[in-house]
Inverse folding.
């Protein structure tokens, strides 16, 4: 068979297979991300069926997937929302960082992955999946709940934290010294502040640069701008993902909403490819040795996220059931944990087992997160009746 | 949270004092980053009622749970037409109240809302056809249809089933008018 023919058949089979898996996932009420990862694990290196001849395309597609994931994360909240979110929830946000980054860092150190591995794993266990959480809140009809703004403001804070964390991680992965690392922190803080000011004051102009009433022109402009900025950022050693993310923050208002609507299907397509490629590059044989660590991390970080949410909701005067819902909703980790692990593994600066641990961890958390959000109410009710019964007995 | 200014509903306060317009409704506006805004208020009975407006313009009606005011017992997606219809249904008493207020200086004049049920003899006919003014001395000052108020309808205004007629007249006249609209 001709080379292109094989490539088309392989790609077609992958996409179709992912479509089937995604349908199954939403049907049983969980995120399709773990399915995509499993799909990737099943093929490729060490998997059941090796795929050949489409590496070039899949690698590029997964790069674009990361760029689009981060661009849409940046588009999700307006600069004004980011600033008010930070003002209102910085205490809860800091608690979130301390409680949820620490377990990842500690496990990485225990596994002997050094400070760089610890920094990467800290990010993997810290960042909640805003994609999964928003979908679950919508599905469960909880958007009108009083605790929902608390959940969203923590996600907004995490979003900002990513803007500072990603450039630092990139600099450290590139082999920066302590001084270099500090410079990276300084530069990223300045850049993020500049982008926020730019978006708040001159967001119209950035938006006008890509905006167009014609959907086709608009799509091409936004996508073109994202890839350009990402490429330039990569060239400047700031990582493509960060560039796209900052561009997303700078685009605001109705332009951002239109861009989100238009790019969502593209993001879903390329992001699926990104998860598959991440799974493809992870040898399934490396997972069993880190499974114990993954489960331990899952248990600990479920508890720490739950505690973060509980505390944040309590501060806003939410009752016990609402606090429990807040905590459980935040448990899900997903796309951004994999993005961070992908950056780390791609730079060849960390132990390759980090990919296996992150995969196993996200597999557990992306499945368990939505389940936790669903089951928390019956669980709380059961617990309170038990308590009452023991109290009366 | 935003908007907790003066005029917050005083639940359980001012007991024993009957103040007719004491319950000032305070609508709380809460931004939902990445989603839209939530606007709600707490009713006198302690239920939270409100609307979520999504960034893309969709609406959702929300009503809080009885035993857990933080949670919602229902969140119902509404199209703009449906939202308008609901607003009209709920807004009519307010309109009547305002008219009654305006007419309260005149003794013997009452304001009433009369529904024109589907299948009424005047469903699909004009206001002129009813000869309401001549037969009952009642005036139709406004018609509420699907959430929209049509003020001062002219004699050629065509009624439809489900219209709500805001009428002004004497007590007897209004009773007669209700009969006319029902039976022709």
């Amino acid at each position: 068979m001709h080379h292109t023919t094989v490539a088309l058949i392989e790609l077609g089979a992958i996409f179709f297979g992912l479509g089937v898996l995604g349908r199954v996932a939403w049907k049983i009420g969980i995120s399709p991300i773990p399915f995509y990862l499993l799909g990737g694990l099943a093929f490729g290196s060490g998997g059941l069926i090796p795929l050949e001849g489409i590496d070039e395309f899949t690698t590029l597609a997964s790069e674009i997937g990361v760029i689009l994931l981060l661009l849409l994360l940046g588009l999700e909240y307006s600069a004004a929302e980011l600033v008010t979110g930070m003002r209102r929830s910085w205490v809860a946000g800091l608690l979130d960082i301390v409680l949820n980054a620490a377990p990842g860092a500690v496990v990485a150190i225990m596994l002997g992955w050094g400070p760089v591995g610890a920094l990467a794993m800290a990010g993997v266990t810290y960042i909640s999946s805003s994609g999964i959480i928003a979908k679950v809140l919508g599905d469960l009809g909880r958007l009108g709940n009083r605790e929902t703004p608390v959940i969203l403001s923590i996600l907004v804070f995490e979003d900002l934290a990513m803007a500072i964390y990603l450039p630092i991680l990139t600099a450290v992965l590139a082999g920066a010294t302590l001084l270099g690392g500090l410079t990276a922190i300084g530069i990223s803080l300045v850049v993020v502040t500049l982008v926020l000011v730019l978006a708040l004051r001159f967001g119209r102009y950035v938006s006008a640069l890509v905006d167009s009433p014609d959907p086709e022109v608009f799509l091409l402009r936004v996508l073109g701008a994202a890839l350009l900025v990402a490429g330039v950022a990569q060239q400047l050693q700031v990582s493509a993902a960060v560039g796209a993310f900052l561009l997303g923050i700078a685009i605001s208002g109705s332009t951002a909403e239109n861009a989100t609507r238009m790019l969502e299907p593209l993001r879903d397509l390329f992001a699926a490819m990104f998860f598959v490629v991440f799974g493809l590059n992870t040898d399934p044989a490396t997972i069993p040795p880190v499974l114990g660590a993954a489960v331990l991390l899952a248990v600990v970080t479920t508890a720490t996220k739950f505690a973060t949410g509980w505390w944040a909701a309590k501060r806003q005067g939410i009752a016990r059931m609402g606090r429990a819902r807040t905590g459980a909703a935040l448990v899900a980790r997903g796309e951004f944990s994999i993005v961070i692990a992908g950056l780390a593994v791609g730079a060849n600066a960390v132990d390759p087992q980090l990919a296996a641990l992150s995969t196993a961890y996200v597999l557990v958390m992306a499945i368990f997160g939505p389940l936790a959000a669903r089951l928390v109410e019956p669980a709380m009710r059961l617990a309170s009746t038990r308590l009452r019964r023991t109290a009366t007995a | 949270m935003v908007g907790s200014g003066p005029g917050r509903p005083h639940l359980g306060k001012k007991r024993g004092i009957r103040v007719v317009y004491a319950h000032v409704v305070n609508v709380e506006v809460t931004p939902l980053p990445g989603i839209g805004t939530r606007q709600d208020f707490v009713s006198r009975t302690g239920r939270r009622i409100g609307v979520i407006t999504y960034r893309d313009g969709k609406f959702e009606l929300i009503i809080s749970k009885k035993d857990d005011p933080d949670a919602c017992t229902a969140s119902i997606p509404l199209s703009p037409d449906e939202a308008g219809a609901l607003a009209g249904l709920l807004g009519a008493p307010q309109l009547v109240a305002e008219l009654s207020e305006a007419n309260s200086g005149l003794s013997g004049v009452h304001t009433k809302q009369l529904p024109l049920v589907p299948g009424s003899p005047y469903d699909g006919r004009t206001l002129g056809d009813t000869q309401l003014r001549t037969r009952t001395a009642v005036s139709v000052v406004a018609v509420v249809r699907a959430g929209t108020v049509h003020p001062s309808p002219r004699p050629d205004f065509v009624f439809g089933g489900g219209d709500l007629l805001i009428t002004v007249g004497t007590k007897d006249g209004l009773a007669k008018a209700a009969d006319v609209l029902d039976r022709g």
User: Anything to note?
Assistant: Residues 1-78 of chain B form one domain.
